[in-house]
Design goal:
mainly alpha
């Protein structure tokens, strides 16, 4: 089965667009905004990709940030599968 079909629908693509916007906002906040105290903007990247990304939070260093990518892919796949199931657009073999 072709797993990419779950990503090629409006729901999954819209979700990935929201994740990209949030991660972009977090990056801008971290690089260009000065804070008198710590910023909690990075938490939003984990929240929009939860629950899968939360499994990676306690990992050391950059491995925690890999959870955002894994969470986004897992959630987009689940949303895409749900969209196909609810919309009735299943791919059927033609032969």
């Amino acid at each position: 089965m072709n797993g990419s079909r779950y990503f090629l629908n409006p729901l999954a693509l819209g979700y990935l667009l929201v994740v990209a916007a949030v991660v972009g906002w977090v990056g801008v906040d971290a690089l260009f905004v000065e804070h008198a105290d710590a910023s909690l903007a990075g938490v939003w990247a984990f929240l929009v990709t939860a629950p899968a990304s939360l499994l990676f939070v306690m990992l050391p260093g950059g491995l925690a940030w890999a959870g955002i990518v894994v969470g986004a892919v897992v959630n987009a796949t689940v949303l895409g599968a749900a969209y196909q199931k609810l919309s009735g657009r299943r791919l059927r073999p033609t032969a």
